[in-house]
Amino acid sequence: QQQVKQSPQSLIVQKGGISIINCAYENTAFDYFPWYQQFPGKGPALLIAIRPDVSEKKEGRFTISFNKSAKQFSLHIMDSQPGDSATYFCAASTPDTGGFKTIFGAGTRLFVKA
Amino acid sequence: SQTIHQWPATLVQPVGSPLSLECTVEGTSNPNLYWYRQAAGRGLQLLFYSVGIGQISSEVPQNLSASRPQDRQFILSSKKLLLSDSGFYLCAWAPGVVYGYTFGSGTRLTVV
User: Fold this and answer.
1) Which of A57, B34, B98, B107 fits a disulfide with A50 by CB distance 3.0 to 4.6 angstroms?
2) DSSP letters along B53-81, please?
3) Chain B residue with minimal CA distance to A43?
């Protein structure tokens, strides 16, 4: 029930195309759904996040779509660029003692071909 | 602005040797601090978190321990390293109940 399932494991997209990464969760107590971007040898960086009271959030070329009834959310990267090549992690958070608890997906390695 | 420092960047240690990784945060007070481990090509595993000085919660029983001797300092230790301790160790902080982590740049640990 604490798992966040992420797919696909890896993704190859042509430059200019749309990259789509999907995640699913089961615990309805989760109330914050962030996406992190990680470049090789670096720590993950918060990319974009959404709360379950909205169905979509857009920041530049990055969009989160959220389906509360299906307990699924996805990251869309429009006009994908070679610089977007990185590993992407979805996550789900819930309040916990003194802060919050976060469960991460297993990650998706995105490669954008020039 | 807040910054997080983590060192060293890389470390090669023999089996059975001790370990000490340090993380410090600047520009904030009373942060929640976290240690994560990332195995090669895999996801993030929470090891320890701390909501205050001397307060440590362990998520996974193992060969490692953590300490928080000062408000903005978090230390990951081991008395005797195992081969299975190899990985990419990440420190992170979060401002209390506000969601979202800021991660450090990580330490690549190889136990040989």
Assistant:
1) A57
2) TTEEEESS-SS-EEEEEETTEEEEEESS-
3) B105
Q: Which residues contact B14 (CB under 8 A, 6 or more apart)?
A: B81, B111, B112
Inter-chain touch B49–A41, beta carbons under 8 Å: no
User: pLDDT below 50 — which residues of chain A?
Assistant: none
Maximum C-alpha span of chain B: 39
Backbone dihedral region for residue A60 (phi beyond 0: left; psi -120 to 50: alpha; all else: beta): left
Asked if the Cβ–Cβ distance from B106 to A43 is below 8 Å, we say: yes
Query: Measured between CB atoms, which of B43, B51, B90 is closest to A99?
Result: B51
* Angstrom distance (rounded) from CA A71 to CA B20: 40
Residue pair B4/B93 in contact (Cβ under 8 Å)? The answer is yes
Are B31 and B52 within 8 A, CB to CB? no
